Amino acid sequence: MNNYKKPRSEIIDGLIEQLKFLKSSARNFDEGDISEAKRMALAIRVLVYDTRSCTSIFRHLKIKQTTGFVDTTYPYDPLNLVSHMSLVGLHFQNEDVRFTWRPDAQQKIVFFDNWWNEPVIVDSAKRMFSRFDIINFTANKENGAHFDGEIPENWAALTRFSSVGWLKISPDGKSIPMKGIELYCLRQMAFEMILTIERLIQKGTIKPIE
């Protein structure tokens, strides 16, 4: 049986649908359901992640290597003794602190390989995590597309034990690791991806079918 080759218009429809998924998950996240970040990881993976067995929407459209991706991070400084967390901020309220995303962060435009592979987290043990790492671990290990009973030690250190070094004080006075950094990173990545796609539409590179 021969396969049906989708025309470009259907691929664009798929891109616009993923954009809608990102915006919907972002709204739900901002209303308090931070687990929506896992859906954002899936949408971004469909848009830009290529493997031997699957092709991203951006590659189908032949725009992956020419698109300027919105980047809201700042460069990693290896001389800085503090953990590097360039996708997220910290929100302090009374005696509480939590991670937050950064809608007002300064923006620059970079090509995909830089956006995908540059370190966005470097923890206190100098373990590095890129956008690819965060999306890959979330989608493949943390109930995004798959759920694994075991996860790599470096990922566990980051997401379970706050290897970036930030702690909270519990009501009984104990220090506990701050969790959720990967989810807020994904919220910021969704923000970047939404802006990236909207720039493509504004420039006419992508023309949604009415």
Secondary structure blueprint with pairings:
Layout: H1 8-30, H2 37-48, H3 57-60, E1 69-71, E2 84-85, E3 89-93, E4 96-100, E5 108-110, H4 112-117, E6 119-122, E7 128-130, H5 131-141, H6 153-161, E8 167-169, E9 175-177, H7 181-203
Antiparallel strand pairs: 1-5, 2-6, 3-4, 6-7, 8-9
Helix pairs in contact: 1-2, 1-7, 2-5, 2-7, 5-7
Contiguous uncertain segments of 5+ residues: none
Strand coverage percent: 5-15%
Mean pLDDT: 93
Number of beta-strand segments: 9
Largest sheet, if any? 3 strands, antiparallel
Total domain count: 1
Gyration radius (Cα, Å) is 18 Å
Shape: globular
Strand order of the largest sheet: 2-6-7
Figure out the total of helices: 7
Q: End-to-end distance, in Å?
A: 32 Å
Counting helices, strands and paired strands, the structural category is alpha+beta
Helix content: 40-55%
What letter string, H or E per element, gives the SSE order? Answer: HHHEEEEEHEEHHEEH
Q: What's this, in brief?
A:
The chain is α+β, with helices and mostly antiparallel strands and 210 residues long. The protein contains seven helices and nine strands, in the order H-H-H-E-E-E-E-E-H-E-E-H-H-E-E-H. The strands form four sheets. A three-stranded antiparallel sheet has the order 2-6-7. A two-stranded antiparallel sheet has the order 1-5.
Sum up the structure in keywords.
42% helix, three-stranded antiparallel beta sheet, two-stranded antiparallel ribbon, 7 helices, alpha+beta, 9 strands, 210 residues
